[in-house]
Structure formats: C-alpha cells, structure tokens
Design goal:
Length: 295
C-alpha cells in the first residue's frame, strides 16, 4: 500500500506565491512515494476542521501557507488527539518558525524536507482550549499586526515606531494584569506581552533571551511594562529596536505554565492571527506533543 499525504494549502498566502511552484511541489511528494490528496483552504478556520477530521486518514499532512495556516493545521491535529507528522512549506513573507526549524523560504526545497524529512517531536502551546505553534501575544503591537496585515513582518519595528510617535504616554493602551508562574506572582501594567517558542519573532532575533530550544518543555515569556515617563518610553524603544540588550521595563523568564488574569477582556493573537478576547488565560507547554517534519 502506498503512503498517503494530505496536502493542504492556502492559495492566497504570500501573494499567491505557491502558484509558481505547485507542480514541482506535488511532483516532489509523488516521487517520495506518496499518493497525494490536495485541498485548498476555503476560509479562515477551514484548515482546523479539515486537519481535525482527516488526521487519522493520512500518514502525513503537509501544509503550505503563512504562520496562520500552520497554526490551523496544528490546532486541528492536536484537537483530533491523533498523532500525525506535519510538514510545513512556508509561503508567508516572514518565516520565524520555519527558520527556527531549518526550513527556508525556497518552497521546492521545503517540499523536499516535508516529503522526505524525519519527524521532530516539538513543543506546542495550549492556550485555554486553543493551541499555538510559536507565539501567543497581547497588546498594542498585536492589534497593529492583524489589523493591517496577516503576517508578523516588522511587527516590533512598527511597534517601536508607534511608541516613538505617541505624543502622550497615556495614549498607549495598557493592561493591568496578574501573572502567575512557578510560584511567582507579578501584578503590573503592561503594554505588550508575548509567550514564544521560536528563535525569532517578527523577524527580530535579539529580544528573546536565554537558551532557546523548541523541544525543551518551556516557553520564553517577555512582558513590557507600561512606561510612566519619557525616559521609560525611550528605554522600551531602545530595547525593541535592539539598541539596548535589556531593559528595566521588561520582564523576561522561562516557564512551562503561566496564568494571566485581568479585570477587562484583553485581545490576543496566536501565531499572528486573532486569538479572541480573554480576561483569564492559562498557557501550558505540551512538551514534544506535535511532530514537525525537519531535514
Ligand atoms: Mg522552548
């Protein structure tokens, strides 16, 4: 019996970049010995349903699109409770997670990895009842990101620009939160927070501290405090633009579980897509629970 692959892609990701490569990508899968079922995603959330209901029928699921497409496939597979290896052919304009895995932006090369590579047991984030692959975030910059474009390109650069342009500090949206992790409790006001499992976010490499591994069972957490004066604001801008390596305005730590509580609803993004409004968020690391295909 031949191996079966579900090849699921978003035809519109990266300005339709896949169209030029589609025949070559499918040919790579056929030559690797797969019987290929092709599915084009029809709307937001479609890939979640498809991956969830079809996970048990295939030896491998290969997806192509931006981070949002990968997020949907991983969410669907995790929700199915069935373990099936996932190959990823990035088509977005930033490729933080792919780069972290050694998957570049050449789509045919990525197809070779997806079809011929080996499963790598990778951590995945559980966010209340939802899942994320490499970044869950809230705050000023996230809203900019998903309102203006679907990818994370220059997200933090844009954030620094907005902060610099803020005429009055009190114009910056701020969220009072209680953050609990590993027996610690922080109670503070934040303009931004992110929980990541990636070497870079929004194309930025420097701002995530410590030893990063995608299968170590912990996330890196970065929380930026609300600036109270222009000096603190400048401190944050310097940190975001990489001028300074650390900041008194920033909490950084690693953990496998954290809980964030606020009195008002806060808007979150998961892998750059809208993740809902929540006043209570529990994030846990599902250690090595998804299988991503790497070289
Ligand atoms: Mg990690």
């Amino acid at each position: 019996m031949s191996k079966r692959v579900l090849f699921l892609f978003n035809p519109r990701s990266g300005k339709g970049k896949i169209k030029e490569n589609l025949a070559d990508i499918i040919d790579v899968m056929v030559k690797a010995g797969y019987e290929v079922m092709v599915y084009t995603t029809q709307s937001a959330g479609d890939a979640v349903q498809k991956a969830r209901t079809e996970a048990g029928n295939y030896d491998r699921i290969i997806c192509s699109g931006g981070d949002g497409t990968l997020d949907e496939v991983v969410t669907g597979v995790m929700a199915s409770g069935i373990s099936v290896p996932i190959g990823y052919i990035p088509a977005g304009s930033t490729n933080d997670f792919g780069n972290s895995l050694g998957i570049g932006s050449d789509m045919v090369q990525a197809a070779h990895i997806a079809a011929e590579g080996k499963p790598f047991p990778c951590d995945v984030g559980k966010f209340n009842e939802d899942y994320f692959v490499y970044v869950a975030a809230f705050g000023i910059f996230t809203e900019v990101s998903y309102q203006t474009s679907q990818d994370l390109k220059n997200m933090l650069g844009h954030a620094a620009y907005i902060l610099e342009g803020a005429k009055q500090i009190w114009d910056i949206p701020s969220y009072r939160m209680q953050v609990e992790y590993d027996g610690n409790v922080l109670y503070d006001e934040f303009i931004y927070g992110m929980v990541t499992n990636s070497m870079s976010v929004g194309g930025f490499k420097g701002i995530i501290p410590g030893n990063i591994a995608l299968d170590d069972g912990v996330f890196e957490v970065t929380l930026i405090k609300t600036p109270k004066n222009p000096i603190e604001l400048n401190d944050i801008v310097c940190f975001l633009t990489g001028i300074s390596k650390d900041s008194n305005q920033v909490y950084s730590f690693q953990t496998n579980f954290l809980k964030l509580t606020s009195s008002e609803d806060v808007s979150w993004t998961l892998d750059g897509e809208y993740g809902g409004n929540h006043h209570l968020v529990a994030i846990s690391n599902c250690k090595q629970e998804m299988e991503i295909i790497v070289e």
